[in-house]
Design brief:
CATH architecture of the largest domain: 3-Layer(aba) Sandwich
Bound molecules: pyridoxal-5'-phosphate
Shape: globular
Radius of gyration: 22 Å
Distance between the termini: 13 Å
Strand content: 5-15%
Structural class: alpha/beta
CATH topology of the largest domain: Aspartate Aminotransferase, domain 2
Number of helices: 15
Number of strands: 13
CATH superfamily of the largest domain: Type I PLP-dependent aspartate aminotransferase-like (Major domain)
Strand order of the largest sheet: 1-9-8-5-4-2-3
CATH class of the largest domain: Alpha Beta
Length: 415
């Protein structure tokens, strides 16, 4: 093999291959036509206007059908949908919520914004929550567990559900990164009590910003709808009606018709995007699977992998660091998962920096909530030993070949 670009050799690619953002790459006439309908109708609001096009309503119907779930409501983001889910479940001050150690900041942040406190559960070699460890971090204050299928990889939800039931915990699924992932054919987001999706630009389908809450539970869903719209359920009882027994003070997390227009067109493209990403991932894995020193992050259900990312694992942090640097130099954009650190090491979480007085909501417990660097040893082991590669349905055949060539080239030199 030729000299590594890291050491002055010719890179596999001159330009850097980063084709994340699978959704925007599928933007086309369908999104534009829906948007034009809303604009021509001058009806960008879902609940009233001169000529409502029902984009959000049809998108919600599409979500229910695609995911085989009873209820869906479009919202402004996945962070909003997590807060809505927590509030719908009655979670707030004095409660703790279990969050996996490997996730994005928003999962833990939403818990704090809902007035509760996150506690962190370690992962296993899937880098998703380890169901066996949930009980170790639950105490008398713990009300819920949030699961996160990371980078398209399904969570062992069957085991999570058993553990949660034993402990009396509500299960909230944060499926932000993994729309379309499943376990045994059952979609992520529909295993637990309530599921949360993102439509932000990095996600598999996208409206730039946006989210969805889904549930099979009538009562939770009613509370979710109310919380997202100032405590009201307009489709049930109209606007500002007097039904004091059911209303409460809520937020405005409503999805606009402009967002709904794009979401509706994108949802139609989800399966096409998933199919292509799965083909690409399989092709890359097949070609590199026998390279000594490279291991894949374990996937519990290959068919249920949304395949928007590929994660390689190495024996040592030094090897992973060098591998990531060398692959970047070859023109393939990669990094250790979340920079190699568990979510609780992000400063505002670790130091419990909240916007509220007296460090609310961390001040609600008899004993202080303590986070330590080493509290999730498996997350600390796997994250800095990882190489995270974003995959996109837009990879051309040459892009796929470049990823394979670069991995083989780097592996031959440094592993
Ligand atoms: C796991 C996870 N949860 C929540 C979010 C937040 O999503 P949003 O940007 O739609 O609020 C993200 C976004 O990256 C995420 O990756």
């Amino acid at each position: 093999m030729s000299k590594l670009a890291l050491y002055g050799g010719t890179p596999v690619r001159e330009d850097v291959l980063y084709k994340g953002w699978p959704g925007i790459r599928e933007y086309g006439l369908e999104e534009a036509e829906n948007l034009i309908k809303v604009i021509k109708a001058r009806s960008p609001f879902r609940y009233y206007g001169p000529d409502i096009q029902n984009m959000v309503k049809n998108f919600e119907k599409g979500m229910r059908e695609r995911f085989g779930v009873k209820h869906a409501v479009g919202v402004t983001s996945c962070t909003a949908s997590l807060i809505i889910a927590l509030k719908a479940a009655g979670i707030g001050p004095g409660d703790k919520v279990i969050v996996p150690a490997c996730t994005f900041l928003a999962t833990a942040g939403a818990v704090v914004c809902a007035g509760a406190v996150p506690v962190f559960c370690d992962v296993d070699d899937t880098m998703n929550i380890d169901p066996k460890k949930i009980k170790d971090v639950a105490d008398k204050y713990t009300k819920a567990v949030i699961t996160v299928p990371l980078g398209g990889f399904p969570v062992q939800m069957d085991e999570v559900m058993v553990e949660a039931k034993k402990l009396g915990l509500i299960v909230i699924e944060d499926v932000a990164q993994s729309m379309g992932a499943s376990l045994n054919g059952k979609p992520m987001g529909t295993w637990g009590d309530i599921g949360c999706f993102s439509l932000q630009m990095n996600k598999i389908i996208t409206t730039g910003e946006g989210g969805v809450v889904v549930s099979n539970n009538d009562e939770l869903f009613e509370r979710a709808v109310r919380y997202h719209d100032q405590g009201q359920y307009r489709e049930m009882e109209g606007f500002l009606t007097d039904c004091a027994d059911r209303v409460f003070i809520g937020q405005n997390y409503r999805m606009s018709e402009l967002t709904g227009a794009v979401a509706l067109a994108q949802l139609d493209k989800l399966d096409k995007i998933l199919t292509r990403m799965r083909q690409i991932k399989k092709q890359i894995k097949d070609e590199i699977k026998d390279i000594p020193g490279i291991r894949f992050k374990r996937v519990i259900d290959e068919e249920g992998d949304a395949a928007c990312s590929l994660t390689l694992l190495f024996d040592t942090v030094e090897k992973a660091d060098l591998f990531n640097k060398a692959l970047n130099a070859e023109g393939i954009a990669v990094s250790a998962q979340y920079g190699g650190r568990p979510v609780y090491m992000i400063p505002q979480i670790f130091h419990q920096k909240t916007v509220d007085r007296d460090n609310f909501p961390f001040n609600q417990f008899d004993e202080p909530v303590v986070y330590t660097e080493d509290m999730c040893p498996c997350a600390n082991y796997y994250m800095p030993r990882s190489c995270f590669i974003s995959l996109s349905a837009e990879f051309e055949e040459q892009d796929v070949r470049d990823v394979i060539t670069a991995i083989k080239k780097v592996a031959a030199e440094i592993l």
